[in-house]
Structure formats: structure tokens, C-alpha cells
Write a structure and sequence with these properties.
280 residues, mainly alpha
Length: 280
């Protein structure tokens, strides 16, 4: 995608490459992540309420670690973009508007679709599993009171992996200026990496909630990238087919291009007037 003078972001050029068949590795990754998530969710449902013994121990260790002054405030900042529906909606809408503004309309649509899917799936699973959140009587210091009642999987983690993860992918592929690309990649990567720690430290989730969030979010993110690449490839093929038809080249489906009716009529008229000419 070439950058325009009026664009807010300098976008990297994306040259057309020969189309290849989709590799099976991403799809295998989706299947594996969903399989492990299903096993974890089953254990949570059967023996993990209110928590596993390891959950309580890890949560206590995380909160008791000698963190530097101001660490709690830093963890709150990390979690801020998903603290409630309004804030999350503002951040997502802002990202979509920015993408539309720089001409990345396809990318903006995929961002919105991915967020709607992950929110729907996450809420449905939370209601099915119905795992209670950490409480002080279970040995956890609760520094923040989450809006949602249930705990598994971590909604923050699912949302950050899908939303910020897809923005990370778009930044890597489309942002051309290194001075902008690498800071953005670092910021988005830090948010994804630290959101799990922040939710455990703040007492909003058990560690197994975080693991489930990364697994489910990773599967949805991979599916989102696969869908985006498929959509982009289809548009490129349609564009190349249109250009080929204009140039008189065969179509992608193997059929011949339309005749140039004016040129054909002129040739027939010349043959009628002058005769077919000498044999070759």
C-alpha cells in the first residue's frame, strides 16, 4: 500500500507477489490452541472452582514480589484500555477511524469484525463456565473491581491479544517509516505481554484465567490474520483479472477476453472491399 501525501501514517509499499496456496501451519496452530483451551476449560469447570491450588500460590507470589514503587499504578495503566465497555469501545473506534483516514478501509473493517467476534465468544464462555473471581477470603488482595462477574477466561487478555495483536501485525506489514514502526511494535507488544501480569497482580483474575485468555485470543488472532490475508488476496486477484481483461489477456478463469468489436468490424469491411488478398 503506497503512501499518499495526505496520509497520517507513512505506509510501506506492498508489491504484488505470485499467489500461493495458504500454508497449513496457521490453521494447525488454531486447532492446537483451541484444543488446549478446551482441555483447560474442562478442568476449570470440573475441579477449578473457585481456583486451582496452583492459582492461589501463583497469585500470592505475584502480589508478594518486591515490585518497585508505583508498580500498582503502572499495572492499572496497562489494563486501562479494557477496563470497561466504554473505554474499550473508544480505543477500538479510534483505531478504526485512523485506519479509515489513511486509506486502510479493509483493515479497519477487519479490526471491527475481530473485536465483535472475540467479545461475543468471550462473554459466552464466561457465562458457561461461570467461575467466580478472586476474593480476599481466598488470600488475594483485590486492588480493582472488574465489571464482569465471571473470571474464565480473562477478557482483558483475549481482547488485548486479538485487538492489539492485529494492530501489531498491521504495523509490521504496512508502516514503512522505521522511526514510527518500531516504537509502535514495542508499545503494542508490551501491552500484550504485560496485560496478563497486570490482571493477576491487581487481583482481577487467576493465572489459569490468563492462560485461557492467551490461548483463546491467540486462536482468534490467527484466524483474523488468515481471513485478512484471504480477503486481500481475493481483491488482488480480482484487480489483476480486470487489468488482464483491459490488456486483452486471458482471464483468470481461463476464458478468452471480449473481442474488440470496432477493430473486428473494420477488418471485415476491408476484406469485403479489397478481397482476401494473396494466399500466404
Amino acid at each position: 500500500m503506497a503512501s499518499d501525501a495526505g496520509n497520517v501514517l507513512p505506509l510501506a509499499a506492498t508489491p504484488t507477489k505470485p499467489h500461493r496456496r495458504a500454508r497449513p501451519l496457521p490453521y494447525l496452530g488454531i486447532v492446537v490452541a483451541l484444543a488446549v483451551f478446551t482441555v483447560l476449560a474442562t478442568f476449570v469447570e470440573l475441579v477449578g472452582k473457585p481456583c486451582f491450588t496452583s492459582d492461589a500460590r501463583l497469585s500470592e507470589a505475584v502480589q508478594a514480589a518486591p515490585w518497585p514503587p508505583g508498580f500498582q499504578s503502572f499495572m492499572r495503566v496497562v489494563s486501562w484500555a479494557g477496563d470497561n465497555v466504554f473505554l474499550a469501545g473508544v480505543v477500538v473506534a479510534g483505531a478504526a477511524i485512523l485506519l479509515f483516514g489513511v486509506g486502510a478501509r479493509r483493515e479497519a473493517v477487519v479490526v471491527l469484525l475481530a473485536v465483535m467476534v472475540e467479545q461475543t465468544v468471550k462473554v459466552a464462555i464466561k457465562e458457561i463456565i461461570a467461575r467466580p473471581r478472586p476474593t480476599p477470603d481466598l488470600g488475594v488482595n483485590v486492588f480493582i473491581h472488574a465489571k464482569e462477574v465471571y473470571s474464565f477466561p480473562s477478557g482483558h487478555t483475549v481482547h488485548y491479544v486479538v485487538f492489539f495483536g492485529f494492530l501489531w501485525y498491521l504495523t509490521l506489514r504496512l508502516v514503512g517509516a522505521r522511526r514510527l514502526r518500531w516504537p509502535l511494535l514495542a508499545l503494542l507488544g508490551v501491552l500484550i505481554a504485560l496485560v496478563g501480569l497486570s490482571r493477576v497482580y491487581l487481583g482481577a483474575h487467576w493465572p489459569s484465567d490468563i492462560l485461557g485468555g492467551y490461548l483463546l485470543g491467540g486462536a482468534i488472532l490467527t484466524a483474523t490474520v488468515c481471513f485478512y490475508r484471504w480477503w486481500r488476496r481475493r481483491e488482488q486477484e480480482a484487480h489483476e483479472g480486470l487489468q488482464g481483461n483491459k490488456a486483452g489477456q486471458p482471464r483468470l478463469d481461463g476464458t478468452a477476453p471480449e473481442f474488440n468489436r470496432a477493430g473486428c468490424a473494420g477488418s471485415v469491411a476491408a476484406i469485403i472491399a479489397n478481397g482476401p488478398g494473396p494466399p500466404a
